[in-house]
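RETRY 2/3 - previous attempt timed out on the joint model. Re-submitting the same 521-residue input unchanged.
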Amino acid sequence: MLKKLLKHDFRALSRTLVPMQIGVLGGGLVATLLTAITIRLGENTANTGGSALMRTLIMGVSATASVLIGIAIMASALVTLLLICYHFYRSFLGDEGYLTFTLPVSTSKLIWSKLLTGMAWTVINALVVAVTLIIFSVFGTTSNSIVNMEVLQAYRTFFTEILPQASQYVNVPIMSVEIVVIGVLALASQLLEIYFAIVVGGQIAKKHRVLAAIGMYLLINMGVGMISTAFMSAVAFGEGVSSIALETVPEVTRFMTSTFGWYGVLFAGLAVGFFFLIRSIFKKNLNLQ
Amino acid sequence: MQSILETRALSKRYSSTLALNNVDLSLPKGKIIGLLGPNGSGKTTLLKIVAGLLTPTTGTVLVDNQPVGEGTKSLISYLPERTYLPDWMTVEDCLDYFADFYKDFDMARAREMLSRLNVPAGKRMKQLSKGTREKMQLVLVMSRRAKLYLLDEPIGGVDPATRDYILDTIIGNYDNEATILISTHLIADVEKVLDEFLFLKEGVITMHDTTDNVRETQGKSLDELFREVFRC
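RETRY 2/3 succeeded.
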């Protein structure tokens, strides 16, 4: 049943999010092209002794394109998150809840489906944003050639020099896996925290449920902040951080692995906690208006 | 006789309002039963609790001897009084959705009913009128081979000709082992299909009898009895 839920949740979200991601990528390409043309025109004007006003104008267009691409990218991340949350709200607390909660599916699977689709779309959006930025940085920032070789070289340097250097201090493959795992856990706990705020907001308010959900999120987030600080402080105290010298490679590796591990435990604990709280409300206190 | 639905001391309170008050109920299998009462008497609340959309304040509900949960949801086909299908879904999407989640969904029966009711297959829900959307939901719900159908005002929003077709469909298509619980105000229209009825007043079941018994012993139609009992 989870597969079927995922299929329908992906279909519902794809309807708006696929065109949006294509729009971000398309907008990024247009801005890249516009900036590349503007830089070339600016160079030509400078070489042929064009007026200062013309140069200012051209640079203004270039800057505007860059700002627009930045705004579009930031907005796409926010809009993606808002659409994921709205889908959750509508499926469970809106009229569609009458359909969702009468399906012969366990409550856990209903939540898993929303969590996995939400996480998948957040990652897809992040990848689209990253690709857009890479395209912009490689093709939209030079007038000498189509490709900005300096930027390309910087990317190459990162993989051929910086990473190998880092491997002298830390175990790069293990650290990469840890970062991915922590990223996944952090994303899950963050989405479940928002879902929990939506559920509690929907339970306590008959009207203005969105406002109630936002208020709940701010409150819950404060609580989570305090728990996280207390937890990591306790961990630091327990591990004796102040006495670690961090002078040798094994010491640095051990410290980073341990810190990342404890963050993983924290995010996993929060995610599990929010998951079971949502499940408990849906199973024991569901009151669909 | 085996019962498909049993409630024991079932109550539901919304802040200061007692919507259901200590309801004890036992509905047999294979009957069409009218859930009748004035507005605000608790009909929708009762159906929503049985469907698993509301948590009772006190009491128990058993559907085919199981407490309400994942298991009972596969036995119940519920038609709410509101339109719940997402606006963006096409008629085909809705059929696909029900076929995916309900093993007892009869696609051929659904297509035949949609065709008879002139519901256009390619249209999205937002392109359909409210009445057509209600027909669509009714088709989906009645195309399942469920054990218990909960129909909340199934004929409220449709024209008299469609009303007759829907009632004929309900009688003609349901399994003899299945029970249909219909909540409605249009008593004269549904009276002919009902085996039994429940009168619900201010959250209390005030009468549970067969329609034949009312006609035979009181010489009245159910509509006449309802008007008498619930006279304002």
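Chain B touches chain A at residues 48, 51-55, 70-71, 73-74, 76, 78, 80, 82-86, 88, 93, 97, 100-102 (CB under 8 Å). Closing ticket.
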